[in-house]
Amino acid sequence: MTVESTVGASGGALPKSVRIVEVGPRDGLQNEKGLVPLAAKVALIERLVAAGLRTIEAGSFVAPRWVPQMADTDRVVAQFRSTLDVEMPVLVPNLKGLELAKAAGARTVAIFAAATESFARANLNAPRAESIARFAEVAAGARAHGMRVRGYVSCAVHCPYEGWVEPGVAAELAAALTEMGCYEVSMCDTTGAASPGRARAMAAATIAAIPLEQVAVHFHDTFGQALVNTLTCLELGISVVDSSVSGLGGCPYSPGAAGNLATEDLVYMLEGLGIETGVDLEALVEAGRQISGVLGRTPASRTALAMAGRRTTTCNAPLSN
Amino acid sequence: MTVESTVGASGGALPKSVRIVEVGPRDGLQNEKGLVPLAAKVALIERLVAAGLRTIEAGSFVAPRWVPQMADTDRVVAQFRSTLDVEMPVLVPNLKGLELAKAAGARTVAIFAAATESFARANLNAPRAESIARFAEVAAGARAHGMRVRGYVSCAVHCPYEGWVEPGVAAELAAALTEMGCYEVSMCDTTGAASPGRARAMAAATIAAIPLEQVAVHFHDTFGQALVNTLTCLELGISVVDSSVSGLGGCPYSPGAAGNLATEDLVYMLEGLGIETGVDLEALVEAGRQISGVLGRTPASRTALAMAGRRTTTCNAPLSN
User: Fold this and answer.
1) Any idea what the CATH number is for the domain that residue B222 is in?
2) CA nearest A151: which of A182, A106, A116?
3) Rounded to 5 degrees, what are φ and ψ at B44?
4) Between the N and C ends of chain A, which has fewer C-beta atoms within 10 Å?
5) For residues A30 and A310, what is the distance between their CA atoms, to the nearest angstrom?
6) For this UniProt entry, which segments traverse the membrane (chains A, B) (predicted)?
7) Active site annotation includes A251
8) Inter-chain touch A30–B319, beta carbons under 8 Å
């Protein structure tokens, strides 16, 4: 399908290009109950690379009993060791994970801190301050080994236990992560509760705390707000966006739960705005179709569904408007 | 669920309140294959009224063989004749339809013109100029009877036959409809192909052609862009938005086709931005749940799914971000 270039930008000063961080192979798949075969993960990443994505989160080095789906991350990383033009961060929760990442040949790791005390204890099994100290060690160890380090701030807008999060608190944590040496910090709306006003406030506080070019955003589509929140952040000049092919990432414990922002819907919007991504939308949709087939589910991306069904024509029923 | 007030508006000058035009009972249901019982339609409208909606498109007066689902619109209208504080437009394609609307006691009718020649011929069975002349007659007849007239511009951004539509062409048609006496013109992205740049260009051209307060927007979620397009138009000061409870309105001939912007997702965003709607989100979600049950389908609204499952808490799986 051809999407012509923009006919006028949105309100703010939009970036000329956006780098998409595809998180489907990790954030998207990690909660799948049925183990996804290694070959399917490798094929997914190969298709994402072929579609033009140049940052792809490949997996995580955590205890297999904790996240069994990611137990083969070493083999995923090994498979792409020679793919030098694609950055493939892997999540590491601690020094042991870092050692595994090093052994596998990973060049980039990601660390993830929580903005609230309750979420740190629930998600990271440690008090907030202790988890931050632990990540500082991991970051130092990674950098000493010549690895790049990406940071995440979970609950940057809303916490499932504590409610709305002060933008300044999230921004301060972003600053701590950059001080540890993170080249980029992804601000995550973990619950998907943000709407554009809160997304903008969080992004503005973050930009005030760390350099604009180091800020990434990561929205979930729980309330259908992921894309509109993303545009709001782009209008502030942010140009790095996390998303997941086919909107993978729903929670297995909440049937019907919405996952990450769908990469296809993001690319469709950016193309329409004349913003470069380097991604081939047709090839991306095909990558999503293939992994959705493996998982036995319908893509959560509207664009994927539209393009799969060639639903660019309207309904033939009379009185359509 | 409590959604706190805004913490800062988006980029543009957002309106303080938005009037939502709920189109579920007409645009949402018209293409359903299985006939929806009159009692279910009446119950839906009653629940929408109870939820605080004050403009509800109730049905259409067209030949029953053309749109069998709307054959009982006279009885729907009769049921709400004494509900004086709710505006309930009914679609009328011609003078015969207008007579039926008058006989039923409708106080507001809607007419719908197409921006492109091809769509006028396909959807209205008449050349574009002829259909416009026909609607001028209908509007004059309605106003002579003391009725209010709402206008629609179909294919205001994109036509399934002719591709992208010049914003000026859509705006000119909006001007023609206001000259006929329409109190408001709803600019429809019929195929759902618009992304925010094109939505903004269309809206800006329309605002230049007719008074701001007479402009409404109507987006479909085919490519997942309905909400972000809507916010882009609100930033231009537009304050009337069409939407459909549960995102009803998918095309029966295209399984999986996305419908209208879901009212629940719209209300969630507006509440978060501190923009008044007068709508109770919990009651709205319940109205959507009930009609979705009648239709035997899952709501297309993410907010409806989130609130139904109380999925405001994040996934319990470790490493959520």
Assistant:
1) 3.20.20.70
2) A182
3) -60, -50
4) N
5) 31
6) none
7) yes
8) yes
Collapsing DSSP to helix, strand or coil, B310 comes out as coil
Does the residue A285 lie in any domain? yes
What ipTM does this complex have? Answer: 0.92
Residue B266 to residues B203, B234, B247, B308: CA-CA distances in angstroms? 18, 12, 10, 16
- Which pLDDT band, with edges at 50, 70 and 90, does B116 fall under? very high
**CB within 8 Å: A192 and B316:** no
Residues of A in contact with B253 (CB under 8 A): 315-317
Q: Does A316 touch chain B (CB under 8 A)?
A: yes
A90: containing domain? 19-305
Mean per-residue pLDDT of chain B: 91
* Euclidean distance between CA atoms A309 and A297, whole angstroms: 15
- Those of residues 150-179 in A touching chain B at CB distance below 8 A are 152, 154, 160-161, 164, 167
In this structure, of A68-72, A240-244, A308-312, B87-91, the range with the lowest mean pLDDT score is A308-312
Among the listed residues A219, A261, A216, the one whose alpha carbon sits nearest the alpha carbon of residue A240: A216
Q: What is the pTM of this model?
A: 0.93
Cα diameter, chain B: 66
Number of domains chain A contains:
1
CB contact (8 A) between residue A258 and residue B305: yes
Q: What is the DSSP string of A160-205?
A: TTTEE--HHHHHHHHHHHHHTT-SEEEEEETTS---HHHHHHHHHH
CA B128, B132, B138, B139 torsion-angle sign:
positive
Residues 6+ apart with CB under 8 A from B197: A6, A7, A8, A9, A10, A272, A273, A274
**Where do runs of H (alpha helix) occur along A105-160?**
117-124, 128-144
Residue A2, chain B, CB below 8 Å: the answer is no
Q: Number of H helices and number of E strands within chain A?
A: 11, 11
Task: Tell me the CA end-to-end span of chain A in Å, nearest whole number.
Answer: 22
Domain presence at residue A182:
yes
- Scanning every residue of chain A, which has its alpha carbon at the shortest distance from the alpha carbon of B111? A319
List alpha helices for chain A, DSSP H.
38-50, 73-79, 95-104, 117-124, 128-144, 167-179, 196-209, 226-234, 263-272, 281-295, 302-308
The answer to whether the CB of B168 falls within 8 A of the CB of B197 is no
- DSSP, collapsed to helix, strand or coil, labels residue B242 as strand
Pairing of strands A158-159, A215-219: unpaired
The residues with which B56 forms a beta bridge, in sequence order, are B22
Is the pLDDT confidence value at B256 over 80? no
Side-chain-side CA neighbours of A122 within 13 Å: the count stands at: 19
Cα nearest neighbour of B271 on chain A: A195
The answer to whether residue A210 is domain-embedded is: yes
Are A123 and B320 in contact (CB < 8 Å)?
yes
Half-sphere exposure of B169 (CA within 13 A, CB side): 16
Examine residue B240 and state whether it is found in any structural domain, yes or no.
yes
pLDDT digits (tens, 9 = 90+) for B145-202: 999 999 999 999 999 999 999 999 999 999 999 999 999 999 999 999 999 999 999 9
| Residue A241, C-beta contacts closer than 8 angstroms, at least 6 positions apart | A18, A19, A20, A21, A216, A217, A218, A230, A233, A234, A261, A266
* Dist CA B12 CA B23 (whole Å): 27
**B297: Cβ–Cβ under 8 A, 6 or more apart, which residues?**
none
